Amino acid sequence: MLLHRRIGIFLITFFMISLIFAPAAMAATTLKYGSKGKEVSDLQNKLKVLGYYKGTVTTYFGDMTRDAVIKFQRDKKIKVTGIADSATWSELNKSISSKNKNTKVTLGYRVLKKGCSGSDVTELQKNWCS
């Protein structure tokens, strides 16, 4: 069980670090209600890691995404618009970076990637969703 928990922590940390190194062009993309695409998924993932977005990650910027952006903007004391503009992206990236600095990483365990199966994947899914 401890091994599975460490694997989960490692994978979550790896995912959060990968969000930081997303292409710079994405950070300049302004997203608003009705926007669609991978950039919306990236925004939702970042908001989810930070605890603002509670829904299922999709490619559509709807009510839940707008509400999460508004909460984030209020907390970070930036102009509250519900639109993911350059100021919002900048604060998101800073917040993700800060969160990563406070996350411990344990290396030396089985690496899981797309296509993996088995008890490690099942355990990771249980821990991720709980």
Explain this structure to me?
The protein has one domain (2-129): Orthogonal Bundle (Muramoyl-pentapeptide Carboxypeptidase, domain 1), CATH 1.10.101.10. It has helices at residues 2-20, 24-27, 38-49, 63-75, 86-101, 119-129. It is elongated, with a radius of gyration of 16 Å. The chain starts with a helix and ends with a helix. The protein is 58% helix and 0% strand.
Brief synopsis:
This is Spore cortex-lytic protein. This protein is about 60% helix and about 0% strand.
Q: In percent terms, what proportion of residues is strand?
A: under 5%
User: Span between N and C termini?
Assistant: 15 Å
Summarize the helix and strand pattern as letters.
HHHHHH
Q: Tally of extended strands?
A: 0
Name the CATH class.
Mainly Alpha
Low-confidence stretches: 23-27, 104-108
Number of domains: 1
Number of H/I helices: 6
CATH second-level architecture: Orthogonal Bundle
User: Over all CA atoms, what is the radius of gyration?
Assistant: 16 Å
Instruction: Please tell me the overall pLDDT.
Output: 79
CATH fold type: Muramoyl-pentapeptide Carboxypeptidase, domain 1
Percent helix range: 55-70%
CATH superfamily: PGBD-like superfamily/PGBD
Look at the helices and sheets and give the structural class: mainly alpha
**Shape summary:** elongated
Largest sheet geometry: none
Identify the quaternary structure here: single chain
